[in-house]
């Protein structure tokens, strides 16, 4: 899509993890941290990996850090904006940024390829879905939307991802459930609670 190979990737880790009581990304499943699994799945799909998190975030993999430009806890769109501005500032030869959250370590190994196949337009946002449910934090975001996104986020009433998506050309790519010995599993399963963590650990041996 970008004409120069794989897109740059950004891991979104700006949430509070309030329901877990600690940074989710550094919790362990399947012999590694959630962040470690995320990086391992993402790395072959992108040309680089940057981490969107606060300055105090524990970063055991020493990933390049890009904090939110608009302050903390504005939501994932602030992380997307920070990643877009960072790419533009560095002059990377890309049209889109691939984002994944830090708490969903089972996403498909062909995520980037399938999203890139969704459009050949440099201004289109491409997001994922499974079982009929959208997962916009897994997405390809055009650099061309950076100005509009920054203007939109400058209004504190504007935080919902779906409301912003309605402003732009959008393609949604549906992904199938993962078939396991214990039944179907959502590839975009996210870990928010201790119960989710236990579920992730139960499936980790089959998926990571």
Could you name the key traits of this structure?
6 helices; 208 residues; alpha/beta; globular; 7-stranded mixed beta sheet; Spore Coat Polysaccharide Biosynthesis Protein SpsA, Chain A; two-stranded antiparallel sheet; 11 strands
Question: Topology of this structure?
Answer:
Layout lengths: L8 E4 L15 E2 L2 E2 H9 L6 E4 L11 E2 L10 H15 L5 E6 L9 H6 L8 E6 L2 E10 L3 H8 L7 H5 L4 E6 L2 E3 L2 E3 L8 H14 L1
Parallel strand pairs: 1-4, 1-6, 4-5, 7-9
Antiparallel strand pairs: 2-3, 6-8, 7-8, 10-11
Helix pairs in contact: 2-4
Mean pLDDT: 91
Q: What are the segments in which pLDDT stays under 50 over at least 5 consecutive residues?
A: none
- What's the gyration radius in Å? 16 Å
Q: Tell me roughly what share of residues is in helical segments.
A: 25-40%
- The backbone outline, from C-alpha atoms, is globular
What's the total count of β strands?
A: 11
The assigned CATH architecture is Alpha-Beta Complex
Please summarize the sheet with the most strands: 7 strands, mixed
Find the CATH topology.
Spore Coat Polysaccharide Biosynthesis Protein SpsA, Chain A
Number of domains: 1
How many angstroms does the end-to-end distance come to? 28 Å
| SS content category | alpha/beta
| The CATH C-level class name | Alpha Beta
Characterization of this structure:
The protein is α/β, with parallel strands linked by helices and 208 residues long. It has a single domain (9-207), classed as Spore Coat Polysaccharide Biosynthesis Protein SpsA, Chain A. It has six helices and eleven strands. The chain has helices spanning 34-42, 76-90, 111-116, 146-153, 161-165, 194-207; strands spanning 9-12, 28-29, 32-33, 49-52, 64-65, 96-101, 125-130, 133-142, 170-175, 178-180, 183-185. The strands form three sheets. It has a seven-stranded mixed sheet with strand order 5-4-1-6-8-7-9, with helices on both faces. A hairpin with a 2-residue loop joins β7 (125-130) and β8 (133-142). α2 (76-90) packs antiparallel against α4 (146-153). The two termini are 28 Å apart.
């Amino acid at each position: 899509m970008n004409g120069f190979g794989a897109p740059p990737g950004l891991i979104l880790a700006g949430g509070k993890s309030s329901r877990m009581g600690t940074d989710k990304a550094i919790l362990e499943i399947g012999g590694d941290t959630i962040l470690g699994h995320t990086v391992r799945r993402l790395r072959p799909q992108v040309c680089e990996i940057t981490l969107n998190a606060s300055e105090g975030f524990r970063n055991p993999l020493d990933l390049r850090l890009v904090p939110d430009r608009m302050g903390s806890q504005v939501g994932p769109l602030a992380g997307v904006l920070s990643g877009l501005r960072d790419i533009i500032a560095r002059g990377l030869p890309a049209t889109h940024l691939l984002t994944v959250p830090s708490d969903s370590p089972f996403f498909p190994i062909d995520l980037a390829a399938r999203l890139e196949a969704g459009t050949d337009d440099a201004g289109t946002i491409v997001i994922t879905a499974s079982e009929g449910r959208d997962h916009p934090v897994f997405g390809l975001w055009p650099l061309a939307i950076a100005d509009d996104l920054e203007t939109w986020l400058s209004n504190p009433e504007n935080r919902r991802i779906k409301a912003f998506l309605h402003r732009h050309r959008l393609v949604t790519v549906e992904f199938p459930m993962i078939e396991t010995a214990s039944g179907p599993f959502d590839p975009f399963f996210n870990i928010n609670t201790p119960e989710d963590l236990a579920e992730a650990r139960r499936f980790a041996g089959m998926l990571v």
